[in-house]
Amino acid sequence: MAKIQVKTKINGEETEFLCQPYDTVLDVLRRDLNMTGTKEVCSTGDCGACSITMDGRLVCSCLVLAAETEDKNIETIEGMAKNGKFNVLQKTFLEHAALQCGICTPGMLVAAKSLLEKNTNPTETEIRYWLAGNLCRCTGYDKIVKAVQAAAEEIRENA
Amino acid sequence: MNEMDNKWIGKNTIRPDGADKVTGRAEYGADTIMPGMIWGKVLRSPYPHATIKSINTKKAEELDGVFSVATSADCVDFPVDTPVILGIQDIRWMARNVLAKEKALFHGHPIAAVAARTEEIAEKACELIEVDYVVHPWAIEIDDAIKPDAPILHDFIKFDGKPSNIAGTLEHKKGNIEEGFKDADIIIEKEFETAAVHQGYLETHACLVSVSPDDRTTIWSSSQGQFMVRAMTSFITGIPQSSIRAIPAEIGGGFGGKTIVYLEPVATILSKKSGRPVKMVMTREEVMRASGPTSGSKSKVKIGAKNNGKITAAQGTFYLQAGAFPGAPIRGAAGCCLAPYDIPNAHTFGYDVVSNRSKVAAYRAPGAPIGAYAVECVLDEVAEALKMCPLEFRLKNAAKEGTKAVHGPTYPVMGYVETLEACLSHPHYKAPLKKLQGRGYASGFWFNAGGESSAQVNITEDGNVVVTTGHPDIGGSRASIANITAELLGIDVNRVSVLIGDTATIGFSNLTGGSRVLFASALVVTESTNQVIDILKDRASKIWNIDKEAIEWENGEARPAGDNAGKFKPLSLVELAEQATPTGGPIGAGHQVNTVGAEGGFATHICDVEVDIELGIARVIRYTAAQDVGKAIHPAYVEGQLQGGVVQGIGWALNEEYIYNKEGKLDNPGFLDYRIPVCSDLPMIDTILVEVPNPQHPQGVRGVGEVPIVPPLSAIANAIYNAIGTRFYSLPMSPPKVLEKISD
User: Fold this and answer.
1) Which residue among A118, B118, B306, B466 has its CA within the 20 to 30 Å range from the CA of B570?
2) Chain A CB within 8 Å of residue B512 CB
3) Does B644 touch chain A (CB under 8 A)?
4) Could A141 and B647 be called an inter-chain contact, meaning their C-beta atoms sit closer than 8 Å?
């Protein structure tokens, strides 16, 4: 099968790749671009570990075909820290011990960032429902929710 | 040193591996690549029980892009009648679990494997492998496996002299059980069932293996023990351990499920036969079908007590699924279930039952939640019959220092009573409840473990510190080790770097498991660091030309003491490191030992549920977990262990279960149908860290990781009973079951 040539933007950087029609964005990120920060856990859209944003919309990269990213803006975990500085969520996740094994963390951070871009003052319930598609098996979510609350507070204070 | 003086121990420092994990830089099992790497895939049995008459791999080998094929014929042969014990595993079974030999024993059992240029080609090649099976009847559930005419999985396993699926038993006895029940004013006996549940670690099993023509082998993989990976791969492939270097990747959760190998020996064989590095990554479906889970169970518990609330006798019988090969965690069920109590007469019995399911693997306090579920529910019924508060009833029968436990030991200093008292005085205990809400209590115990550990502490040329240990860090142990090292050396914690060595760079260290890592690594790191301090004092003594004994180490510097006090300007770690070469050379020390003195852990939980009687959903609305943690070196990560364990227990109690269909095939091998708790299911999980230091440990550490999963099953069952007046004797208490019971 002939491969498809795709031109897209990943974390602000123009990127070109060749993919099979059936390859997902996750396949291309991890296998072809060696951007392994985005994690593969279920491959069926049930866990959120491969969360990325595409033109600002939070998606599971295992459910989006690579060919669909033509001319899109993709943001992954690798683009979250800017100029060698943590995003506020990365900082509060560390301060609140909101990770144990860390495999869900990239997806969790991408999803939480997407929430705070829409709502800088979410209730605990809003945070819990927004992150309901991001599984974590280690933490029981308690410290994750607190880290998101702390980040939201910091964003509001600096607004 | 006064505890209040601690600068780093007990502080929530930023973990040394944190930045890597929030930026995506951390390398997990599936994140490593090598030039020339090819991909391995596994062919799995379509039948739950079948004899393998022959395997023809010719067509697969001939497919373009295929480099090598592996079957059990490529593994070392371990006769079924000779045990080969490694830790708690028997390599006879491990080898046959990795690649089936005589029989396929569960749907999904690996039969053969292929390495090819791409995963797609490897998958296609697997389909070209011809396997001649003779299909047998199968048994999935315990009742079907132990009935008289059950299909027998292993002909050589005998019970009562006959071929059987009961592969082993274990028993604990104390006092005289008949007399104990005679003394009782009230006796309650109940039967329970729990479903098999998976550890549910999010990272699937993955490895990359490269074997050179002289058999020198490098394994990158995510596991709970690089030394376990080396040893098991060595056994199964025949390559000596000295030729294998196992490099631990970051581990994306394990909970016991990564204490054994699945892929590493297979990838080693494929790499050896192809001369190429081979990468293998399981899909989620493969993880669910062929790794883990922990046992489903059937049990019966009988408890007798006097009207004054004293328990006179307790008896428990536990049948646990082992999966396809012997090794169910009956010790955890029969050994832990009565451990929190001082009971004069007791008898517990465990049965290890094989059936046509995937081989069970350890899961957080293996077996203990199953035993505690039955015992703690019956205790609740006894307390109710005696009209006693369930916590006061437990307090009245609580084990203390000096109590002889049913499973053998006489307890040293321990904090079980303190967890009960902490719950009794917590606001949660008296908080009001609404209609259809109920509160439940339960306690739990886990043995905790010591075992082999190694550490090396090196001072860098610029006077900072690198600590290397041999245990994969599964939940933040590096942060605690950094705290301890910084405390002992009296330096800023950010000057300490903590690394996990591979099998070639650090001495043998046993598994990350049994809640042993911080207990054991703190011991060897403390000893190594104290040796380093001794060396530093020696170097200062050379510089000052005074006795080493006349020098003290304080606040990160050597100071002249006694008669010499104030005579010389103190020498800092940086200054001593600068002068390392003229004063004797590199500064560092290592220690390796079989650690002993790990004492058991106790917990008591309070749980509130609210039951939606229209939808059958029981929802946990408040949870408080009290636990004797010995000493919390990094309190936030200790709390994290409690919170994570509780939530896994909530999943076990309310939703998670392995569901098999009529063909003996798992029907829910993914996170859509195997539903682990999600963020919106839960409240915050409150924790009470009770600190009764372990006197046998320099920092007072007790294992904390496993106990938290022990009480939730029964705490939730007891809470549901108090909410709706209906008792559940079978897990999970999922919406269909709750609805069915309510409508009865």
Assistant:
1) B466
2) no
3) yes
4) yes
Alpha-helical (H) ranges within B476-516 are 477-489
Substitution target in B20, B21, B471 with the highest count of A β-carbons within 10 Å is B21
Q: What integer pLDDT is reported at residue B3 of this predicted model?
A: 57
Contacts of B367 (CB under 8 A, 6+ apart): B294, B295, B318, B320, B328, B329, B330, B331, B332, B333, B334, B335, B336, B350
Q: Are B60 and B128 in contact (CB under 8 A)?
A: yes
Q: Which residues of A touch B284 (CB under 8 A)?
A: 41-44
Q: Assess contact for B671 and B610: CB atoms under 8 A.
A: no
What is the CA B1 to chain-centroid distance, rounded? 33
Say yes or no for a CB contact (<8 Å) between A143 and B474. Answer: no
Spell out the domains of chain B, with CATH numbers in brackets.
3-26+450-595 (3.30.365.10), 38-136+203-252+258-290 (3.90.1170.50), 297-448+599-743 (3.30.365.10)
CA dist list (Å): B129 to B43, B126, B280:
8, 5, 18
The pLDDT score that the predictor gives to residue B4 is 64
Mutate to test the interface with A, among B12, B17, B21, B22 (most CBs of A within 10 A): B22
B21 touches chain A (CB under 8 A): yes
Residue B214 to chain A, least CA–CA distance (Å): 30
Whether the CB of B17 is below 8 Å from some CB of chain A: the reply is yes
**Are the beta carbons of B375 and B343 closer than 8 angstroms?**
no
Interface of B with A in 659-678 (CB under 8 A): 670-672, 676-678
d(CA B99, CA B279): 17
pLDDT, tens only, A51-82? 999 999 999 999 999 999 999 999 999 999 99
Q: Where are the alpha helices (DSSP H) in B569-674?
A: 573-578, 580-583, 635-654
Contact assessment for residue B293 and residue B198, using Cβ atoms and an 8 Å cutoff = yes
Give all domains of chain A, ordered by start, each with its CATH number: 4-79 (3.10.20.30), 88-158 (1.10.150.120)
Q: Nearest CA to B350 among B337, B374, B363, B333?
A: B333
How crowded is residue B667: how many other Cβ atoms within 10 Å of its Cβ?
12
Distance CA B400, CA B609 (A): 31
Residues of A in contact with B19 (CB under 8 A): 86, 94
The closest of B469, B474, B32 to B251, measured between CA atoms, is B474
Environment class of B447 (CB within 10 Å of its CB; exposed 0-12, middle 13-18, buried 19+): buried
Cβ-proximal residues to B585 (8 Å cutoff; 6+ apart), any chain: none
- Chain B, nearest residue to A133 by Cα: B678
- CA-nearest residue to B285 within chain A is A42
Calpha distance B72→B369 (Å, rounded): 35
* pLDDT digits 0-9 by tens, B679-723: 999 999 999 999 999 999 999 999 999 999 999 999 999 999 999
ipTM over 0.90: yes
Q: Do B253 and A43 touch (CB under 8 A)?
A: no
Q: Roughly how many angstroms between the first and final C-alpha of chain B, as a whole number?
A: 63
Q: With beta carbons less than 8 A apart as the criterion, state whether B252 and A47 touch.
A: no
Closest chain B C-alpha to A23 CA, distance in angstroms: 11
Is the Cβ of B527 closer than 8 Å to some Cβ of chain A?
A: no
**pLDDT at residue B182, as a whole number:** 98
